[in-house]
Amino acid sequence: MVPRSTIYHSSSSTNTSTEVDPVVTCTDVSRHFTRGSSHSGWFSRSSQSAEIVTALSNISLSVTRGEFVGLAGPSGSGKSTLLHLLAALDTPSTGSVTLAGRQTNTLSTRQRTKLRLDHVGIVFQHFHLLPSLSARANVATPLIELGYSRRQRRQRATELLANVGLDDRVHHTPGELSGGEQQRVAVARALATDPDLVIADEPTGELDTTTGKRVLDVLAAVATDRAVIVASHDPQVLDRVDRVIRLRDGHRQKVDETT
Amino acid sequence: MILVSRLTAIASVAVAQLRHDRTRTLLAVIGVTLAILSTMLLAGTGLGVVETGQEKFENAGRDLWITGGSVQFTPSQVGGVQNSIYDAHTFADELRQRDSIRTVGPLLFQTVYVSSDGEEFQTIASMGVPSSAGVSISEGRGFQGDSHYANGSYNGPMTHEILIDERTATLLDVDVGDRIHVGGTITSARNNEFTIVGVSSTGNQFLGTPTVTMPLSELQEITGKTGTDPATIVAVTTTNDSNPQAVAQDLQTAYPELTIRTNQEQFQATLERQAVVLAGGASLIVLAVVAGLTLTLNILLSMVYQQLPQYAALKALGNSSITVTGVVITQAIIVGILGCVVSLGLVIPMANGIDHLATTITGFENVVRISPQILLLGTGVATTMSLLSGLIAGTRLVGLDSIRILRNQ
């Protein structure tokens, strides 16, 4: 895989056809969970009195390259579940999700992992950076899978960190960085494999207003030639996106906001 | 090239993780080191006991060992030894008549009271021998024959000469030329003074305890055993053209009530009597390995659990299970290598230390022997432990449910 020349502008997305083609589409997607059947370890047991819970119901959505989309809704509305489905971390109970032209529910776990590696970048609320690695090494971790040489990994990670304004924090470990800086490292890591889709779950949830704004600036810049979907309660985030999809109790509300 | 690049990247992440969690890493390395050291030292002790024992029997220069059965110490009886051969001098003379037999040495082991001043007595072991020619003397000289027997009358002159070992010398604070009281009872000991004429460790090496060595008939005299003329064991040397095995069979036919063993058989019998001790040693090896494995696995799992969200995030970002698991397995391998190197560096000095301690306390030398095979065993244990713990901890990550873990954050 050849990385794009910059993190924000894709050389392969300059014509109108790529802008029109959706990066990710979900059609009549529902997701049910069986409450009481989760496994927490090797020796846990499933509950006999399991209860079916519908986290998402008949959601349809399409996001194209260049769109910055917000997912809004109260806790438990299904935002994270929808993000997981769109990122091919999970598969729908009914309906279909098509990511980069492939239906995720037809793929094996390994194939979905490869699909994410090639097409999806994820930013987590709690960053989830490896505390033992420097910022540069953290950004470079997804590139291990692609067989980049050490030099290539370093070069790519250094570029990405420079583009999120952290060129002077390359050698710092997460413990030596502020929350905003850690989140920008996480954004740089999400962009390491040059994905078509970036999803972010409450990316400003742990940040103050000023720091959150800076992270949003980075995500907005990223969205110029990729699809970016952000789940958030934060009005500051929802004000910055192109459109907002509102969820409540697993259903999409009839009127979405367009900013 | 891609594979090499991936492997080096995985190794660098593993090293960074270990360096970051230094206390855990140190504990894991200590766990592996202790397990490997215990394994090597216990196995080395087993090897040392077997090899040294074999050498002792071979160096004794005897071919056959005759006993009245299983030799047992019985502290409740005077003299404290069961299953003796009686009329030992007569029996020895009978054996000497055989063409196939070159030398016969009846040996008597007894517990005796000793004192350097005739006031304070201590109980130690004693060995009676027909001549000091069969014992090694490191200082002084041997004693003059076994004249007291006098064809069974026990009225020949007593030499009142005795050999002691270094531990007895230390115990009684005596040296060559000093006189000590020795007897089967305290009264007998008060009446019998012996002159120390030399230092010999032969008795100590037989019995593993401070031992004095004196003429057989004089030991029988001072322990009140002249009536039965007992010997605990009779050592026999066959002639050069005789087959010890065949001589043993002939003697067994002639003396069915006695137990006659070759060097090898006697050594095996000695080992068999120590079966419980040997089984205990083997159990300790297994326990050491299991304890080391458990400790390493526990520490690795705690490292994995602590960073489960980070590993889940890596998998969510597209890193394969092989990569994520590879980091954990590499950590285990590195811990195993470090533990192995440290224990290989420590095992020789520790074996020497234990040898020194054992020689000081029991008089046995070369108790621990570290051979290349023992070092190989340690390396094998390190490899197995690290791979096994890495695989078990890594298995936890193969089925990692990233969504559940990330959702619970």
TrEMBL record, chain A:
- What Gene3D superfamilies does this protein's entry cite? P-loop containing nucleotide triphosphate hydrolases
Keyword list (alphabetical) reads: ATP-binding, Nucleotide-binding, Transport
Report domain ABC transporter positions: 24-258
A single GO molecular-function term is:
ATP hydrolysis activity
Top-rank taxon: Archaea
Show the taxonomic lineage: Archaea, Methanobacteriati, Methanobacteriota, Stenosarchaea group, Halobacteria
Q: What is this protein called?
A: Putative ABC transport system ATP-binding protein
Q: Name one GO cellular component term.
A: membrane protein complex
| Pfam annotation, one family | ABC_tran
Q: Which InterPro entries match?
A: AAA+_ATPase (IPR003593), ABC_transporter-like_ATP-bd (IPR003439), ABC_transporter-like_CS (IPR017871), ABC_transpr_LolD-like (IPR015854), MacB-like_ATP-bd (IPR017911), P-loop_NTPase (IPR027417)
TrEMBL record, chain B:
Which coarse location class applies to the principal site listed for this UniProt protein? Answer: membrane
Hey, what's the signal peptide range on this chain?
A: none
Span of domain ABC3 transporter permease C-terminal: 283-398
Pfam hit, one: FtsX
Q: Which residues cross the membrane?
A: 26-50, 275-301, 322-348, 374-399
Q: How does it sit in the membrane?
A: Multi-pass membrane protein
Q: Which domain of life is it from?
A: Archaea
Q: Where in the cell is it found?
A: Cell membrane
Specify the MacB-like periplasmic core domain's residue ranges: 25-253
Q: Which InterPro entries match?
A: ABC-4/HrtB_transporter, ABC3_permease_C, MacB_PCD
Cellular component terms, GO, for this chain's entry? plasma membrane
In Swiss-Prot or TrEMBL terms, this protein is called Putative ABC transport system permease protein
Source organism (scientific name): Halopenitus persicus
